[in-house]
Amino acid sequence: MSTFRVVIVGGSIAGLTLANILERYKIDYIVLEKHATIAPQLGASIATLPHGARILDQLGVFSRVAEISMSVHEAENIGPDGRILGSPEPIGDLMEEL
């Protein structure tokens, strides 16, 4: 039986999720990231919708993510020039019900 190593390019959400899955199945992998740290804080945020929460639950990390998360009740869509493009209807309360 031949062995192989999975190469994951990028320590993004997708890359780290794949690394988590491979770790659980004891598949050899390496994560290549151009930044000095994995998952650098670049001013981005993450929103988890119900289908994403289900996957986090299947990975066994949802409860920990929920502990360190906060609900979003208002949002604005901002263009590259800083101008507000729109404000979606508040969905935070609806998301918490799901």
Automatic annotation (TrEMBL):
Keywords attached to this entry: FAD, Flavoprotein, Membrane, Oxidoreductase, Transmembrane, Transmembrane helix
Localization of this protein: Membrane
Superkingdom assignment: Eukaryota
PANTHER family: FAD-BINDING DOMAIN-CONTAINING PROTEIN-RELATED, FAD-DEPENDENT MONOOXYGENASE ASQG-RELATED
Domain FAD-binding residue range list: 5-68
Coiled-coil regions, chain positions: none
One Gene Ontology term, aspect cellular component: membrane
Chain positions covered by the region annotation Disordered: 79-98
InterPro entries on file: FAD-bd, FAD/NAD-bd_sf, FAD_mOase_fung
Protein source organism: Penicillium subrubescens
Protein name as annotated: FAD-binding domain-containing protein
